[in-house]
Automatic annotation (TrEMBL), chain A:
Its main location: membrane. It is found in: Cell membrane. It holds the Pfam family BPD_transp_2. Keywords: Cell membrane, Membrane, Transmembrane, Transmembrane helix. The chain crosses the membrane at residues 12-32, 39-56, 91-113, 119-137, 184-205, 236-255, 267-298, 328-344. PANTHER family: ABC TRANSPORTER ATP-BINDING PROTEIN, HIGH-AFFINITY BRANCHED-CHAIN AMINO ACID TRANSPORT SYSTEM PERMEASE. This is ABC transporter permease. One of its GO terms (molecular function) is branched-chain amino acid transmembrane transporter activity. GO terms for cellular component: plasma membrane. It is a multi-pass membrane protein.
Automatic annotation (TrEMBL), chain B:
This is Branched-chain amino acid ABC transporter substrate-binding protein. SMART domains: AAA (SM00382). PROSITE patterns: ABC_TRANSPORTER_2 (PS50893). CDD domains: ABC_Mj1267_LivG_branched. Coiled coil: none annotated. The lineage of its organism: Bacteria, Pseudomonadati, Pseudomonadota, Alphaproteobacteria, Rhodobacterales. GO terms for cellular component: plasma membrane. Residues 6-249 form the ABC transporter domain. Keywords: ATP-binding, Nucleotide-binding, Transport. The keyword ATP-binding applies. GO terms for molecular function: ATP binding; ATP hydrolysis activity.
Length: 358, 254
C-alpha cells in the first residue's frame, strides 16, 4: 500500500537516463574526438540548467525568462575573476561566489517584489530584468569585453598540456588510448559538479518541499489555506534555481575558457532551455536529462546528418535541396512540432504515463 | 460557559460602495456547531473568507483564543487553527489522494521546509495521512489522482484535507453541494463525528433544512451582510424575521 506504483513507462525513462549517465561518465573513452567531448560537456551543463529551470516552470508553475541571466552571472563572475586575477582556484572561487551573490540578491529582489503578482506580469518583469542584464554586459565592455566577450585561461590543471600521470619516459599515461591530460580533468570536473547539482535537485523534488511546490502549481489558494506561505516557497525555489543556474554558468565558463553574451546571456539560450524542458517533459527531472541530450545533439549533429542524407540522395530530384544542411533549423522546427504532437507531456512525461494504472 | 474560541468583532468589508459584510459581531465556542444560513448574496461565503483570510477586513477584528488574526495571511491563520473547506471542490487535482492529505498533515507538522529528507522517509506523516484516508473511506483510492475521483469522493477528500489539518475551528461551506442523496450522508457523518469531539468549533454554511435540523446547535442568519438572527435552531427557525427573509418578503414590509 505504501509503495507508489511504478509504471512500465517510468522504468523505461529511468533506464534511458541511466544509459545517458553511463555514456556521459565514459564519454572521453567512448568518443575520442574534441568535438564529441565538447558536446558531452555542454550536455552536462545544460542538464543542470534545464533541470533547475524545470524546478520553476514544471514543478512550481513559475514562468521566468531570466534563467540565462543567472547562468550569465555565474559565467561572467568566473570569467572576470580569471581574467583579472589570472588562472587559479582562488579566482574560480571568488568568481563563483560573486556570481552566486549577485544572483541571490537579484533573485530575492525580483522574487519578493513580484511573485505576488499574476504569472504573466512576473514573466514580463523577468524578461525586462534579463534584458537589462544583457545590455549591461555589452555596455560595460571594460569588464565584460562587450559583444566580444572575454577569453581567459582556466586553472593550470585543466590545460591540455598538463600531464596528470606520466610514465618513466615522462610522457603522459594513456588508458584505452586516452591521454590522462588536463582536458580529461576538465571534463570530469564538469561531469561531477553537474552530477552533484543534479542529485541535489533530485533530492529536493523528492523532499516534502517538492510536494509543496507541486501543490502550489496545482492550487495556489488551497496551498495557502492549508498553511503554506506561498510567497515564501516561491521566492525560495526561485532563489535556489537562480543559484544553481549561476553555478552551472561558472562551470561552463571554466570549461569553455571564453564567456560572451552568446554563450551565456542571450535569449537564444533561453529559448533553447524552454524547448528542452518542453521536449523532455515538464515537472520531471528525468525529462530535463532527455530534453537536454536530444536538443544539444540535434544542434551539433543534425547538420552533419543532413549533409550525409543530401549526399546519399544526390541523384533524386528535390530531396537534396530539402535536405541541404543550411536548412537544419527548418528540420529542427519540424521535429519539434512532431515531438510536441506525439508527446504532449514531453518525452519523459508521456512515456512515464504508459502502462499507468487507471 | 466555555470561553469563545473564535470571535468576530464588528467585522466589515466594503467592495467600493457595496458593504458585503456589515459589522458582524459573533462568538463561537468549542463543542458548538453553528449553521450559518441566509439567502444567496447574504455574505455567508464572504464572512467565511474574512475569517480564514482569503479576504482582509476593511474594519473590525477576527480573534482566535484572543489572538488577533485580522491582518494575517491565510497560511498563518491555518497555523493558528483555522481550517477551511471550500464550496467548490478545491483540491490539488494532479496529485494523488494520499499526497493531497499528506500535504495537510505536513503543513501541520511544519516539515514543509525540510529540503533533504525524502518524503517517503517521513513515515509518520504518511501513516497519519493513511489514518485520515481510512476515516473517510478513501484508502483504496490512495494512489489515484484527485482529479480522477467521482464528485462525491472529491467532497469527502475535501473534508479529509480539513481533518488532516487538525484545526480547532472547522469551517464547511456547503459541504454537500452538488452531491447525490446517497452520498451526502457520508460527508454529514464525518461532520457529526467532528462535532462529537467537544473541543472543536464547527461553522457550517448550509441550505438543506434537514441537514440544519440534524446538526445545528445554533443558527445565525445573515441577510444583506448583516447579522439578522442568532439563537437555538427552534427559536430561529420559527422567528418571523427568518421566515420573511426566506419567503422573499422584504424586511421593511414586515
Amino acid at each position: 500500500m505504501n509503495a507508489i506504483p511504478s509504471t512500465q513507462g517510468s522504468v523505461i525513462v529511468k533506464a534511458a537516463v541511466l544509459v545517458i549517465a553511463a555514456l556521459l561518465l565514459f564519454a572521453p573513452f567512448l568518443f575520442q574526438d574534441v568535438r564529441s567531448l565538447e558536446v558531452a560537456a555542454r550536455i552536462c551543463v545544460f542538464i543542470v540548467l534545464v533541470a533547475s529551470y524545470d524546478l520553476l516552470i514544471g514543478y512550481t508553475g513559475i514562468v521566468s525568462f531570466a534563467h540565462t541571466m543567472f547562468f550569465g552571472f555565474g559565467a561572467y563572475g568566473a570569467a572576470i575573476a580569471l581574467k583579472q586575477m589570472g588562472p587559479g582556484w582562488d579566482a574560480v572561487a571568488l568568481g563563483a561566489v560573486a556570481g552566486m551573490a549577485v544572483s541571490l540578491v537579484v533573485a530575492v529582489a525580483v522574487g519578493l517584489l513580484s511573485l505576488r503578482v499574476k504569472a504573466i506580469f512576473f514573466a514580463m518583469i523577468t524578461l525586462a530584468t534579463a534584458s537589462v542584464a544583457l545590455v549591461l554586459a555589452s555596455q560595460l565592455s571594460q569588464f565584460t569585453g562587450g559583444e566580444d566577450g572575454i577569453t581567459y585561461r582556466s586553472p593550470d590543471i585543466f590545460k591540455t598540456a598538463t600531464k596528470l600521470f606520466v610514465d618513466e619516459e615522462g610522457k603522459v599515461v594513456r588508458i584505452f588510448g586516452v591521454r590522462l591530460n588536463g582536458k580529461l580533468a576538465a571534463y570530469y570536473f564538469v561531469f561531477f559538479t553537474s552530477l552533484a547539482m543534479f542529485l541535489f535537485m533530485l533530492r529536493l523534488v523528492g523532499s516534502p518541499i517538492g510536494t509543496v511546490l507541486k501543490a502550489i502549481r496545482e492550487n495556489e489558494a488551497r496551498a495557502e489555506a492549508i498553511g503554506y506561505r506561498v510567497v515564501a516557497y516561491r521566492t525560495f525555489v526561485f532563489v535556489i534555481a537562480a543559484l544553481l543556474a549561476s553555478l552551472a554558468g561558472t562551470v561552463y565558463a571554466i570549461w569553455l575558457k571564453y564567456t560572451g553574451p552568446d554563450t551565456t546571456l542571450s535569449f537564444a539560450i533561453m529559448i533553447d532551455i524552454l524547448l528542452m524542458v518542453v521536449i523532455g517533459g515538464m515537472g520531471t527531472m528525468w525529462g530535463a536529462v532527455i530534453g537536454a541530450v536530444l536538443m544539444v545533439m540535434a544542434q551539433y549533429y543534425l547538420r552533419d546528418l543532413m549533409g550525409t542524407a543530401a549526399e546519399a540522395t544526390a541523384n533524386i530530384p528535390l530531396l537534396p535541396e530539402v535536405l541541404n544542411p543550411d536548412r537544419w533549423l527548418f528540420w529542427l522546427g519540424i521535429i519539434f512540432i512532431l515531438l510536441v504532437y506525439f508527446f504532449p507531456k514531453g518525452i519523459a512525461g508521456t512515456i512515464a504515463q504508459k502502462g499507468a494504472r487507471a | 460557559m466555555t470561553q469563545p474560541s473564535l470571535v468576530t468583532q464588528d467585522l466589515t468589508i466594503r467592495f467600493g460602495g457595496h458593504v458585503a459584510v456589515n459589522a458582524v459581531s459573533c462568538e463561537f465556542r468549542p463543542g458548538e456547531l453553528t449553521v450559518i444560513v441566509g439567502p444567496n448574496g447574504a455574505g455567508k461565503t464572504t464572512y467565511f473568507n474574512l475569517i480564514s483570510g482569503q479576504l482582509t477586513a476593511t474594519s473590525g477584528k477576527v480573534l482566535k483564543d484572543g489572538t488577533d488574526l485580522t491582518a494575517m495571511a491565510p497560511s498563518a491563520r491555518a497555523h493558528h487553527g483555522i481550517g477551511r473547506a471550500f464550496q467548490l471542490t478545491n483540491l490539488f487535482p494532479g496529485l494523488t489522494v494520499l499526497e493531497n492529505i499528506r500535504l495537510a498533515v505536513q503543513a501541520r507538522s511544519g516539515a514543509g521546509w525540510k529540503l533533504l529528507r525524502r518524503v517517503e522517509a517521513l513515515t509518520e506523516l504518511t501513516e497519519k495521512a493513511e489514518r485520515y484516508l481510512e476515516a473517510t473511506k478513501l484508502t483504496d483510492k490512495a494512489h489515484q489522482p484527485a482529479s480522477a475521483l467521482p464528485h462525491g469522493d472529491q467532497r469527502k477528500l475535501e473534508v479529509a484535507l480539513l481533518m488532516a489539518m487538525e484545526p480547532d475551528i472547522y469551517m464547511f461551506d456547503e459541504p454537500t453541494a452538488g452531491m447525490s442523496l446517497d452520498h451526502a450522508p457520508d460527508v454529514l457523518d464525518l461532520i457529526a463525528e467532528i462535532k462529537k469531539d467537544r473541543t472543536k468549533t464547527v461553522l457550517l454554511v448550509e441550505h438543506k433544512m434537514d441537514v440544519v435540523r440534524a446538526l445545528a446547535d445554533r443558527i445565525i442568519v445573515l441577510h444583506n451582510g448583516e447579522l439578522l438572527a442568532d439563537g437555538p435552531p427552534e427559536e430561529v427557525m420559527s422567528s418571523q424575521i427568518v421566515r420573511d427573509v426566506y419567503l422573499g418578503k422584504s424586511t421593511e414590509a414586515a
